[in-house]
Amino acid sequence: MNKKYNFFYAFHYLILVFVLCSFSVAIAHHSGNMFDREQTVELTGTVKEFQWTSPHIWIQVLISAEDDMIEEWSIEGGVPNRLFRSGWRPTSFEPGDRVKIVAYPMRDGAKAGLFIGAKFVDGSTLGRFPK
């Protein structure tokens, strides 16, 4: 084989690898279609856990249900880097904190939502908590 022929195949092989890798990155990130952005839920409860993780933060909140059962809700938030630049810290929510959270609920009715805002007992807020 001559060098020109080898270069032709190597170049196309590299393009194929690049395209396939690009698709895997695009597919890896989920959309927000699972959240119903036409409705909101207001949850009052106690923070069980705050996960400052990439690609999104998570807040686990324990809510007292109507039948005196405790429900655990998973609230998905934004990207840690962006949140940090807007004043959030890995200690913004501590286990045991009493909090009121407003979120977009899941379309399928699961006990989860997309974070909109939170209000703490002392009156301080994070996100876009309605006034």
Which helices and strands occur, and which strands form pairs?
Blueprint: H1 3-28, E1 41-51, E2 58-64, E3 70-76, H2 80-85, E4 98-105, E5 112-120, E6 125-127
Parallel strand pairs: 3-5
Antiparallel strand pairs: 1-2, 1-4, 2-3, 4-5, 5-6
Key words describing this protein structure:
131 residues, alpha+beta, OB fold (Dihydrolipoamide Acetyltransferase, E2P), 2 domains, five-stranded mixed β-barrel, 2 helices, elongated
Task: Return the average pLDDT rounded to an integer.
Answer: 87
Rough shape?
Answer: elongated
Question: What are the secondary-structure elements, in order, as H or E?
Answer: HEEEHEEE
Spatial strand order of the main sheet = 1-2-3-5-4
CATH-scheme architecture of the largest domain: Beta Barrel
What share of the residues lie within helices? 10-25%
CATH topology of the largest domain: OB fold (Dihydrolipoamide Acetyltransferase, E2P)
Strand segment count: 6
Distance between the termini: 73 Å
The fraction of residues in strands falls at 25-35%
Summed up, the helix count is 2
The main sheet comes to:
5 strands, mixed, barrel
**What would you report as the Rg, rounded to the nearest angstrom?**
22 Å
Low-confidence stretches: none
Total number of domains: 2
Structural class: alpha+beta
CATH class value of the largest domain: Mainly Beta
3D structure, described in words:
The protein is of the alpha+beta class. The protein has 2 domains: 1-30; 41-127, OB fold (Dihydrolipoamide Acetyltransferase, E2P) (Beta Barrel). It is 24% helix and 34% strand. It contains 2 helices and 6 strands, in the order H-E-E-E-H-E-E-E. It has helices spanning 3-28, 80-85, and strands spanning 41-51, 58-64, 70-76, 98-105, 112-120, 125-127. It has a 5-stranded mixed barrel. A hairpin with a 6-residue loop joins strand 4 and strand 5. The longest helix is centred in the N-terminal third of the chain and has 26 residues, at 3-28. The radius of gyration is 22 Å and the shape is elongated. The termini are far apart.
